[in-house]
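ok trying again, last paste got cut off:
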Amino acid sequence: MSELQGQCMCGAVTVSMTPAQNTLRACHCDMCRRWTSSTLMTIPAASGYAALGPVTTYRSSDWAERAFCSTCGSALWYRITAPGDMHGQVQMAAGLFENTGGNTLDLKFYIDKKPEGYAFTGTQRQMTEADVMTAFRPAAEGDDQ
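nice, full thing came through this time. structure:
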């Protein structure tokens, strides 16, 4: 897969990354909608992505952090911080890139939180809040899962 080059709205942060998969993802969770005022559209990044410029990270939950441009506030990425198989996985904000490399939407997170007026064409895999919690939330101490 080809490396993608992008930047935030003001150009202070530049990013480069190679997609881990030829896909786009959409998240409808409360945090993503508040962060972007819409659905967060992302591209899964392979390891080795780079970001140069004034980046701020915010630990938004027990298992993840979000990064944004310190100058203009543009969303940059969502990264899994919890220990385990998913640790370090990054979903890069698709809006940073002029060309997303032909990636197509294949997965919608928190589909049960999607506002009524939001609609995407096509058929994509969907995960509810419960599905996401089961898949990504780290197990509590003493929890056998």
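cool. The chain has one domain: 4-135. Confidence is low (pLDDT under 50) at residues 141-145.
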